[in-house]
Amino acid sequence: MLEELALERIMKKTMYEKIWESHFVHQEPGQAPLLYVDRHLMHEVTSPQAFEGLRMANRPVRNPHSILATMDHCVPTKDRDLPIADPIAKKQIETMAENCEENGLNLYDMESPDNGVIHVVVPEHGFVHPGMVVVCGDSHTATHGAFGALAFGIGTSEVEHVMATQTLPQQKSKTMLVQVDGKLSKHCTAKDIALAIIGVTGTAGGTGYVIEYAGEAIEALTMEGRMTVCNMAIEAGARAGMVAPDQKTFDFLEGKEFAPKGEQWEQALTYWKSLVTDEGAEYDKVITLNASDISPQVTWGTSPEQVIGVNGAVPTPESFDDKGKRLACESALKYMGLAAETKMTDINIDYVFIGSCTNGRIEDFRDAAEMAKGTTVAEGVTAIAVPGSFHVKVQAEKEGIDKIFKEAGWEWREPGCSMCLAMNGDELKDGQRCASTSNRNFEGRQGKGGRTHLVSPAMAAAAAAAGHFVDISKLG
Ligand SMILES: CC(C)[C@H](C(=O)O)[C@@H](O)C(=O)O
Ligand code: SF4
To answer: Does 425 fall in a domain?
Structure first.
């Protein structure tokens, strides 16, 4: 009987384990297992050396159809018709175009109507499906886990390995279930879930794990919302984040360019439905949160885990028992120019950025526009809205969202990573403070000396109008 129970437990698998096993190719004794890779995403920053390596070794790209490439990190978000002023950015863009041309790869270049941030454009075309293994030389590849895929970032030498062999040496991760029960309160969003989770796990809590997000609040999210949550799995230190595919996933994919069609669609559906974690399967770690406890979140420090509800105050270093966290708090307060115990709603801002692969999708702009409607950007504040892709931009314009922003005094830009990491010239000046919908608030991330507070799009729009953070949960 006990044996039977044990056997039953062994046979019950998590979604991660099912995907892993179906992609396992081979393992040499003493070496990491080799995984088959279905999809390889690319941008201009991490691919040039990989292409160079292939060229030197005289090897072709094994499966050009597995690759989708874009230009996003270095692209200007205004005056796109003028030549790129920054010589490094210009070179990266040109090199990307040459490499894709030479290898026959599908590239959404700067002129393409499909251009945008890699993790925004890939889902728009239905390029990632449930059950796939997806890689990209970019840490936020975890975004695509929202489709029930195993998606993670890799280094440039690994990019070369995947291009040459369509496989990747990869150690198996442990599994973590992050269960978010209950319902979100009004004006709370997927971004607040993502930040609140990191507030609990810390940026190292996910190290060695692949997270599966589940529970009523995750199921209730749209695909866009699930992408936001999975996008930030990496900020919790996890290898990847994923959500079980369901009817929302299938509806999102159906009819998209790279989605299976006809009979293949039916077969795919049967397979996708089988990927869901078996009832009773065990995870190595389980974390439970209640969505109704999550208030609109704001980071106060220089790490995404240094986060608090907007109704709270900047913590004192002494409030941390852990010495490392205490010191981190001290140093963050110094860099951020904040005094402990300052109410979050008393913090004034200079800049607002809405965009990035975390919150640059249509729903994010709808949320922000609802908040921005009829307001005016506060004096002394610069606010920029940067759609994640041209498709997002066009859709937003169709809905009149650009007008709402422009009338409120916002700049309405062209798509790209922009001020998420300030590689394209969009950056904060020393000491400027920004309410940003991106995913990283590291020192200098948005420009040397720049101070980043991570928030949701609605929080960003409310801050732009007030000139400081606002407890939007108190709004009607
Ligand atoms: C440039 C790229 C390698 C980097 C990443 O891996 O995430 C960037 O996208 C980021 O968000 O910091
Ligand atoms: S938007 Fe930001 S986080 Fe996303 S890929 Fe670009 S730089 Fe990285």
So the answer is: yes
Q: Whose CA is nearest to atom 4 of ligand 1?
A: 138
Residue 22: inside a domain: yes
Distance from the CA of 468 to the center of ligand 1, in angstroms?
Answer: 28
Q: Are residues 365 and 462 in the same domain?
A: yes
Would you say residue 333 lies in a domain? no
Residues with Cβ < 8 Å from 403, sequence gap 6 or more? none
Tally of CB atoms within 10 A around 269: 16
Judge whether 334 lies within some domain.
no
Ligand 2, closest atom to CA 420? 2
pLDDT of 9 higher than 80: no
| Domain end call among 147, 168, 189 | 168
CA of 215 from ligand 1 middle (Å) equals 29
Domain end marker among 105, 138, 168: 168
Query: Any binding-site annotation on 420?
Result: yes
* Tens-digit pLDDT profile for residues 275-288: 999 999 999 999 99
Q: Is the CB–ligand 1 distance for residue 130 below 6 Å?
A: no
ipTM above 0.95, yes or no: yes
Residue 124 shares a structural domain with residue 199: no
Whether residue 42 has its Cβ less than 6 Å from ligand 2:
no
pLDDT digits (tens, 9 = 90+) for 255-277: 999 999 999 999 999 999 999 99
Does residue 29 sit in helix, strand or coil? coil
The Cα–Cα gap between 42 and 55 comes to: 17
Ligand 1: atom nearest CA of 46 is 3
Number of domains in the chain: 3
- Give me the DSSP letters along 408-471: TT-EE--SSSGGGTT-SS--PPTT-EEEE-SS---TTTTSTT-EEEE--HHHHHHHHHHSB---
In this structure, what DSSP letter does residue 115 have? -
Residue 423's domain is classified under what CATH number? 3.30.499.10
From the CB of 393, is ligand 1 less than 6 Å away? no
The answer to whether residues 362 and 439 belong to one domain is yes
Is the domain of 352 the same as that of 254? no
Q: Are residues 33 and 101 in the same domain?
A: yes
Compute, in angstroms, the gap from residue 278 CA to the centroid of ligand 1.
34
pTM as predicted: 0.97
Range of the domain at 68: 16-168
Question: Is 357 assigned a ligand-binding role in the annotation?
Answer: yes
**Residue of the CA atom closest to atom 8 of ligand 1:** 138
Q: What residues have CB less than 8 Å from 12, skipping those under 6 apart? A: 278, 279, 280, 281, 282
Q: What is the DSSP letter of 78?
A: S
- Rounded to the nearest angstrom, the distance between the alpha carbon of 262 and the centre of ligand 1 is 37
